[in-house]
């Protein structure tokens, strides 16, 4: 059975050990976490954890049931559908020799990113958007030379009804 990428988001109690219990559930069942992001919500008593994983429909159903059984998990949703706003941020350190600085600046502008640090031999670029957008920029920057990369993983929120 084919495994598709799923974006799961959950509201949890903002308490020590909750993220460890959630990730431990995945590890103990042999489920892989591709990305994980967690931070407090507007309500400081709750956090939102967003996980990207690959699963077939049966495996996804099992993951969702097991997450809902965890004591500190308040709500779990599959955000894979189009009705969710999904974004990621990346910080990319690239080699920036004098001969390619203009080209790098043009690429960054095209992808609506920005240079957040400049050195004599490097730029650090900040870009946010969909995963495909970030992947496309990385593909263009690769021949120039990516020195370091940090990605946030996907964050997602459902669109509010009108």
For the largest beta-sheet, the strand count, sense and barrel status come to: 5 strands, antiparallel
CATH superfamily of the largest domain: ACT domain
Radius of gyration: 19 Å
Question: Number of DSSP strands?
Answer: 9
CATH class of the largest domain: Alpha Beta
- Sequence stretches where pLDDT stays below 50 over 5 or more residues: none
Shape call? elongated
Task: Give me the strand/helix succession.
Answer: EHEEHEEHEEHEE
Number of alpha- plus pi-helical segments: 4
Number of structural domains? 2
| Portion in helices | 25-40%
Q: Structural class of the secondary structure composition?
A: alpha+beta
Strand percentage, roughly? 35-45%
Per the CATH scheme, the topology name of the largest domain is Alpha-Beta Plaits
CATH architecture descriptor text of the largest domain = 2-Layer Sandwich
Distance between the termini: 37 Å
Mean pLDDT: 93
Would you write up a description of this structure?
The protein has 162 residues and is α+β, with helices and mostly antiparallel strands. It contains four helices and nine strands, in the order E-H-E-E-H-E-E-H-E-E-H-E-E. The protein has two domains: 75 residues, Alpha-Beta Plaits, CATH 3.30.70.260; 75 residues, Alpha-Beta Plaits (2-Layer Sandwich), CATH 3.30.70. The strands form two sheets. Strands 5, 6, 7, 8 and 9 form a five-stranded antiparallel beta sheet that branches. Strand 6 and strand 7 form a beta hairpin. The two termini are 37 Å apart. The model has no long low-confidence stretch (mean pLDDT 93).
